[in-house]
Design brief:
171 residues, mainly alpha, 10 helices, 0% strand
Length: 171
């Protein structure tokens, strides 16, 4: 499979793909900021016609899970959060920030399971998936978590202790 081997050996791999998806991720979060269903329009109906909720909850979230299940760490090659976390980790290291090692409890996957459960409760309890403004907050929260964790911890800590796909990949 020469084309795949050439792609993996390319100096821009995986950064170009991750950067492109990071731009899309930020664009979706910005576009959905403060966007609520109009008065009298049910959230479920509005979610089906809004680009952000369709892309995030109808395409990105299921694709992330299925790609991880079927192809393993291929998802990591395009994950924008990995790029952000690694970038802030390198920046913090360059600025002389003393970074911590991820603790055993965080490496166990317990926090990932709790965060995933919280996301599922927010989807069903607060209609996270039906309101673009809530989805925007969710996306900004993921970006902020990746950046902060990358700055505080070392050795791909976000991916190993905070990423919603991390526990799935670990199993």
């Amino acid at each position: 499979m020469r084309p795949v081997a050439a792609l993996v050996r390319w100096a821009g791999f995986p950064y170009v793909f991750q950067a492109a998806l990071l731009a899309v991720f930020i664009g979706l979060a910005a576009f959905a900021w403060g966007l609520y269903p109009p008065e009298g329009v049910p959230g479920k109906l509005y979610a089906k016609s809004n680009l952000v909720t369709l892309l995030v909850w109808g395409l990105w979230w299921p694709a992330m899970v299925w790609i991880a299940v079927l192809f393993g760490r291929v998802w990591c090659a395009v994950c924008p959060l990995e790029l952000l976390a690694n970038g802030t980790e390198r920046l913090a290291r360059g600025l002389g920030v003393k970074q911590r090692v991820l603790g055993k409890w965080l490496r166990s996957g317990a926090l990932i399971a709790a965060l995933y459960a919280l996301i599922q409760m927010l989807v069903h309890g607060a209609d996270l998936h039906r309101h673009p403004a809530y989805t925007s907050l969710f996306l900004w929260g993921l970006l902020a978590t990746a950046a902060v964790v990358g700055a505080i911890y070392k050795d791909r800590a976000f991916c190993r202790g905070f990423c919603p796909v991390g526990l799935l990949l670990g199993t």
